[in-house]
Amino acid sequence: MEYKHHDIEKKWQDRWEKDGIYHAKDQDPAKKKDKFYGLIEFPYPSGEGLHVGHPRSYTAIDIMTRKQRMQGKNVLYPIGWDAFGLPTENFAIKHKIKPQDATKKNIANFTRQLKSLGFGFDWSREVDTTDPKYYKWTQWMFLQFYNSFFDEKTNRARPLSELVIPIKIKEQGDKAVVAYLDEKRLAYKASATINWCPSCKIGLANEEAQGGVCERCGGKVEKREKSQWMIRITAYAERLLKDLDSVDYLEKIKTQQKNWIGKSEGASIDFAVEGQSADKNDIEANITVFTTRVDTLFGVTYLVLSPEHAFVDRWLIDGVVKNAKKVQDYREAARKKSDIERQEDKKKTGVELKGVRALHPATGEHLPIWIADYVLSGYGTGAIMAVPAHDERDMEFAKKFKLPIIEVVSSEGVNVNSDFLNGLTTDKAKQKMTAWLKKEKRGSKSTNYKLRDWVFSRQRYWGEPIPIVHCDNCGYVPVPEKELPLELPDVKAYEPTETGESPLAAIKKWVDVKCPKCGGAAQRETDTMPNWAGSSWYFLRYCDPKNDKKFADPDKLKYWMPVDLYNGGMEHTTLHLLYSRFWYKFLFDLGHVPKECGAEPYRARRSQGLILGEGGMKMSKSKGNVINPDDVVKDYGSDIFRVYEMFIGPFEQEAPWDTKGIEGVRRFLDKVWKLFPETQNLKPETRIPEDTETLLHQTIKKVGDDIENMSFNTAVSALMILTNKFTDVGAQKVPKQALENLLKLLAPFAPHIAEELWHQIGNKESIHLSEWPKFDPKKISSPEFELVIQVNGKVRDKIVVRSDISEKEAKERAQSSEKVKGYLAGKKPKKIIYVHGRLVSIQI
Ligand code: ANZ
Ligand code: ZN
Questions:
Q1: How far is CA 760 from CA 34, 564, 675, 742, in A?
Q2: Which ligand is nearest to the CA of 309?
Q3: Are residues 130 and 100 in the same domain?
């Protein structure tokens, strides 16, 4: 009989579903040891359908969870939909349909595709971020952020109701109290310079505008001032950084997160501004800079403010700047550039602010003040002290504008031209200068992070409505919890408005509401959440997906969390992975995630390499080299597809699609298939040839280890070698149990064919619930061997030694043999050679 995947794959998929063999069972948290929670990034159900990249990640974790299950673990391997987002909205606009309907259709298609691949997902726990029953909790969590503050003393979030309001503030009245509270909230509204994509008409977080281009459309991003909801992720910068030490992530993932958080230790220094107040305590009159090189203070020859710096506005208004027109033009030009362009531009630009000067805190010298776009407004204090001799950017700038350059660190690495710092090494100079600044009250130690607060507003339709109402009397008022979910209304048109407002803003009936607090006229917030919101906590919902009283039952969280293994794309390292760690820590702080779950959501994180098109080009519609999983399943079946995706190359590396490679896998599974039909009367008592038995045990060990190490391609090779061996020996000469072990090892990779053959040889239960084979270490390699000892080319003795004997020990043992001693007659050998695992040859 021929191997026909069509005949068996659908059959087993239906049977597995009917028997519910992949359903995870909630258990008592005390039994936590026996659980395994494997997670893949839930897909965005796009109109294009599944990409061949998706199954690479899903198959890998499918294999690992199947092995865990066979090793007796209670496995949770869930699936769901990260379904809000712009592509669906744009698709809906173009085809004049509702995003809701487009999403439904896309999910149905993805479901069909994923089911055809035989993944062991627990479909009973499916979640969908666009389902109001789900986003009710996303909105509830937003309100938790809104109603919390970060307690610097205990380094954790707490309910705003516990915040002590200073008497001074209370005395100023209600307005001051409200302002004080608003300043502390973890979700807050602020006018921020945001990355604005003029083509998508949407504000983007820094993470979504990397390289100065819009992550969604690839177009150029501009700067724009807009009032936005923000989430104070920066409060967690230190914990997000430090706790990386406690998790098992790929090293490159840790590095990327560390760089993104960008901790930088230095000092802030105040430079008084001449002509303004010279009072040292009047902070308003000081330009504060952030520097990592206080030791170079004597090398400062000018200051640079970012063009957006608030002082520039003030001086323009006060009329102190003599060249106002030039300054204004320059600011306008800077606004159009992205931060990346500003940093990377080698051609420095800038304008001196004529009419204001700063005073050097140590020498009292007058320093010119410039604005230049290489100084960013969002980092540090938005102002720098320029040390052209030792900072490359300042050097380029000083050369261009003919500003003085003073060397203060010699090539020997000690300070020069630096008064009381002369002769000190950089470290010592930093210490001394920091102490001096402190004593003079002109500066202090300071730590900066590159991480920015999370821009949480999107001016689009297809996202979770932000559950806030604005009332002229009461300010921002949360939608009462019992009114959640605040559902998206039906809209006629989904296009963003020309002004950049969300389409929701155009629905007066939805916008106008009564204020939940005072009952007066109020308006709903029309911005929606970014699609990173729903994905920040979905792994918690999987633990208890149908709960309508809580986002998840604490006992269920205690049992399942943390996720034991999370796999996903490298492109999500600084976005989703960081956001979700933060979101989790916040819920943890408030006690919504129980202590027993641990401070980190994911114990381990891995990442797959991209699958490229044939020849190694990135797959893309425009190149016409996209491989459609449906076609592969139709032509080859899902088992071959799965095995091929694992065999394509090392899991963490990119790999090009190769039709010849998939043919090779087809031959392999054909061989497995052929091994069985002639074995109707397999004899359990058959004695296995010794070398075949050794290979079997070696393969059990290797496949097991390889799966744990995610070295799937080498595991597949080992299975191929074992199959060839069994074929050569002939199935009749191999005991039934050995053949069963081959099937068990194959089952996680090719679940359908393994199940079919398993039943053909008489088993009744699913192979996926059978026990993972064990190897016998004694049978893997003989632990001893016979060491031959030659003297002048003639064999004089043979001794039995351990197989892991070292060269040194082998030579010593050879020389101390009684027989050999007779030939050596006390003479020192001229030469001794050791041939590993075989002989020692002595020359005298
Ligand atoms: C003087 C100096 C001398 C500096 C020197 C460096 C070398 P990281 O490590 O990235 O934190 N800087 C500070 N704020 C800035 C801003 N808003 N835009 C652009 N540059 C800014 O870098 C800190 C250094 O970057 C600071 O230390 C400052 O230049 C500059 F030999 O001060 B330094
Ligand atoms: Zn009100």
A1: 31, 35, 12, 14
A2: 1
A3: yes
Can you give the CATH number for the domain in which 742 is found? 1.10.730.10
| CA of 383, nearest ligand number | 1
Residue 190 identity (one-letter amino acid): A
Q: Which atom of ligand 1 is nearest to the CA of 390?
A: 31
Q: What are phi and psi of 298, to 5 degrees?
A: -75, -5
Expressed in angstroms and rounded, the spacing between residue 515 Cα and the centre of ligand 2 is 5
Nearest to 320 by CA among 281, 273, 279: 273
Name which of 669, 457, 501, 565 is nearest 4 in CA terms. 669
144 Cα: distance to centroid of ligand 2 (angstroms): 20
Digit-coded pLDDT (tens) for 408-449: 999 999 999 999 999 999 999 999 999 999 999 999 999 999
Residue 439 sits in a domain whose CATH number is 3.90.740.10
Ligand 1 atom 19 nearest Cα: 375
- Residue 92 is predicted with a pLDDT of 87
Instruction: Report if residue 2 sits inside a domain.
Output: yes
Is the pLDDT assigned to residue 214 strictly greater than 90?
no
Give the ligand 1 atom nearest the CA of 306: 17
Give 89-121 pLDDT, tens digit per residue: 888 888 888 999 999 999 999 999 999 999 999
- What is the distance of C-alpha 269 from the center of its chain? 36
Domain boundary among 426, 449, 472: 449
| Residues whose beta carbon lies within 6 Å of some atom of ligand 1 | 264, 290-293, 296, 375-376, 379-380, 382, 384-385, 387, 390-391, 448
Beta strands in 506-632, from DSSP E residues, in sequence order: 512-514, 521-524, 565-567, 604-606, 611-612
Which residue among 193, 289, 293, 337 is best mutated to probe the pocket of ligand 1, counting the most ligand atoms within 8 A of its Cβ?
A: 293
Closest CA to 367 of 268, 266, 269: 269
Which ligand is closest to the CA of 471, given by its number? 2
